[in-house]
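Example record for the data management plan.
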Amino acid sequence: MTTTTRPPGPAAAPDTPDTSTPDTSPSVRRRTTGGVVRHTTRTKALVLIGLALFTLYSLAPVWWLLVAATKGQRDLYTTNGLWFSDFHLWENVRTLFTYQDGIFLKWMGNTLFYGFAGTIGMTVICVACGYGLALYEFRGRSILMGCVIGSFLIPGALLTIPSFLLYTDLRMIDTPWAIIVPGFFNAFSVYLAKVYAEGAVPPELLEAARLDGAGEYRIFFRIGARLMSTGAATIFLLGFVGAWNSFFGPLVFLRSSEKWTVMLGLYSWLKVKVDSSVDLTGLVVVGSIVSLIPMVILMISMQRYWRSGVTLGSLK
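Corresponding structural encoding:
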């Protein structure tokens, strides 16, 4: 019996996909070394176009306000709305501050007072509630948290009539308290403070403070509140923006024009449109620009807190 042997040779190479011809399909995402996805040119172009359209949509009204605020009464209605004409900005600002004995400045002061008073109280209350829900174990905590989340589903307008009747019984109608007190309570801020406390305040640190003899109030103000300062600043910023832009509450609960906010006052001018000697539409445009200044200052001064608060969800 004879056997035949195959001469030794190179081993057969395993089947591998042919990579000699690269895939030039523009809709395929390529994965580079390290698992990083490299998007195609078409995807980048679509993203840039979307960002450009969003920027245009956001800045176009502001640009129109800036241009319109520099025009006189005649140019406001007869010239191109997106470009400048004769410069009358300082005259418009002077008229805004002197019309009706400077009532616009009174409205600005009211809005700042309502906003700061209500937002500071809301920040303290909501941070304390979120801290307690996150770090204390007690019966009914889950039910209470469910009620907080469920309150997101209740429209604010639905509570207008009950609130009006309650404030009437408490003699709070046409007083600053009708605007300040409701601003103390915000369910979303409580939820935001709870989420932030869970990630920023270690329970071990609180236990160590209790072993050293510190009370719960001292622990909260000395340790918990300081560790939650970034979240508290974000809550304050969101609350102040909401209070500054508030319109429906002052419209329902305030009667005297001396107690109005900026938004309500500008709305009253816009309804009249033309006075015997002043074009109120132009004053509304200039007043809208001036009313943006406090918000811009606040956003710039609290920018680092805002950035940290916005990234809270991704870090969590």
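Summary line stored alongside the record: DSSP finds 16 helices and two strands in the chain.
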